[in-house]
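Action item from last week, closing it out:
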Amino acid sequence: MPFSKPTPTISFCTKTNIYSLATIAFLCSFSYFLGAWNHGGGGGGATSTTTTTTTTTEVSLRGRCNSTTTNSNDPLSAQLSIDFSTHHAADQGGAANALAETEISYPSCGMEYSEYTPCEGTKRALQFERQRLIYRERHCPAKGELLKCRIPAPYGYKNPPAWPASRDVAWYANVPHKELTVEKAVQNWIIYEGDRFRFPGGGTMFPQGADAYIDDIGDLTNIRDGSIRTAIDTGCGVASWGAYLLSRNIITMSFAPRDTHEAQVQFGLERGVPALIGVMASIRLPYPSRAFDMAHCSRCLIPWGQYDGVYLIEVDRVLRPGGYWVLSGPPINWKNHWRGWERTEEDLRAEQETIEYVAKSLCWKKLDEKGGIAVWQKPMNHLSCKANRKIIQNPPFCQAQDPDTAWYTKMETCVTPLPEVSDSEELAGGELAKWPQRLYMIPPRISSGSIDGVTAEIFRLNSELWKKRTSHYKAVNNQLGHSGRYRNLLDMNAYLGGFAAALVEDPVWVMNVVPVEAKINTLGVIYERGLIGTYQNWCEAMSTYPRTYDFIHADSVLSLYKDRCEMEDILLEMDRILRPEGSVILRDDVDVLVKIKKITDGLNWSSRIVDHEDGPHQREKLLFAVKLYWTAPADAADQEGSR
C-alpha cells in the first residue's frame, strides 16, 4: 500500500533543543563582542588575568635621565597591555610558577670591580705562562667564580658626547686614568683637560696626527675608491687610526691587550670606535678567514719574525686575497731611526730581513717603503704560490682545517689555502663590490654555495625582513632613530648582519656576534658585506670593558643557550657591558621572556614585553628594556682613588 504522509508534530524535546541552541548562540556572540571590546581598550584598561600580562611594566625610552615615567605620545606607552590569553599563554606549571617565586635582587659589586673584565683578570692571568704573552689571552672564571652582582659605574659617570664629537673628547669621570697622558705626552695620544680627556689624533708613529698618516698610506694604497672597507689594527693604542678611517668609510676592528697601557681599549670605546681586548699569542684571532681588506701595525710591538712567523701567518689567514699589510715603526726605515730607537743597526737589520723573508714565503709582494711606512700585498690567489712550494716548502699549506674556525683554536705555522681558481687573474673566493654596493650584493660565500642552507633568495628575504623589523624597533623606541642617542651597538646573534645593514645610514656601528654554538658559521658573510663582528660563546664574558655598548640586540640568544648555561649569567654579562641608560631589545619565545622578566627586574632594568611586529598571534615576543642610571657612591670613588 502506498506510504501515507505523516502528520508533522513538534515534541517537547525538539522545542527544548531549539531554545538551547538559540541560547548558546546568543551567549557565544555576547562573549565574542565583550572580549573584542575589552581587547580594543574599551574596558578602560587590561583585565586579562593571565600571568604573562601581569609581567608587563611601563618604560620610558625618551630621556637620557633615569626617569621611569611614561609619555602619552610614546608608541610604547600606547600599548597599555599585552593580551596572551588566547594565544601561546604560559602554562600554569612553567612560567606562572616562576613568577610566583620570590623576587630576585642583584646587589652592587664593590667599586674595585668597576672595570672588571672577567676573562682578562690580572690575578688569574698570572697563573699562566708568560712566554708568547699566553697569560694575556682569555682565561675565564669557572662557574663557581662568576659574580652575581651588578658592576658599578664610577661616581659622576656621564653619557659620552654624541658622535662625531666623541672622537675627540671623553669624560674623565668615565675612565679615570691619567697614566697615558704622562707616558704618551710627546706622542699626542691623549691630553687631560679639567673634566675631560682630549684626543688630538696622534700616535707613536704619527705624532702629527692620524689624518696626515692615513694620507701617507693612501699614497701607497688605494683607500679612496671603496675597494678597502674593513681593516684590522693590531695593537691599536687609543684607536686613533680606526677613528680617523671612519671618515673615509673604512671600518676598523681595533684590538690591544689589557696591559700596562691602562685602559687603551676602553678609551677607544668611549670615543665611539669599534674595539676589543685581544692579543696575538697562541690562539687565532676571533675572526674568519679572508675578513679584512687591510691589516695595520704601527709600532705594535708584535714580534713578527719570531716563532716561525706564526703571527704574520695569522694575519695572512684573516687578510683577503689582494689585501694589504701596513707596517710602520721599527724596523722600517731603521737606517734613519736606529739611534732614537736605542737599538743596534745589526739588530734592526736582522729583524727587517726576517720579516721580509716571512712575507715572501707567504707569497706577499712588497709594494713600497716610503718614509717610515712599508706596504705588502697578499696575492689574489694561490696558483703560483702552490707551484713555488715545490721549491720553497716552508711554511707548508695547511691540511684538513677549517680556516674560519677561530674560537680557542691554536695558531698554526702553515698557510691557510685560498679557494681554488681556474685562472691566474681570478680573485680567490670571488669578487667583492666596492663600498657601499658591497653591503647589498649577494656575498660570494653565499653565491658559491659555501654556506649550507643559505641561498641568494634567503639572503634577500632576510635583508628585507630586518628592514621591516628595524623600522618597527624605531617606532617603539623612537630614540633608536634619533641621531646621537646611541653610538656603540651590539648584535648578540647577528646571523647575516641584517640588523646592522638596516642601520648603516645612521651614525652608529654594530659589533655583529656569531655565537660559536650557532648552527651555521655566517661571520664570513658579515665581513663580505663590509660589516665587522666577532665570535663569542655567551656562556663566557665578552672581551671588552664594562659600559661598552649603548644598545644591545639579542635575537633568540636565550633560547640558544637555555640548556647550556644559566640565563642570569648571560643577563648579568649584558648588564656589565651596557652603559647606564643603555637600551636592550630581547627577541625570543614568549615562555623564555616571561621567565627572564624577573631577572631583568632584579637588574634594575625598566622593561616590558610587547607583541611581535606581525601581531599578537606570533609566539615570538619582544622585551624592550632600559638600564636605569646608577653609579657607585661618592665615598666609594674617594676610597678607590686613595689606593
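Closing note: The chain is about 30% helix and 15% strand.
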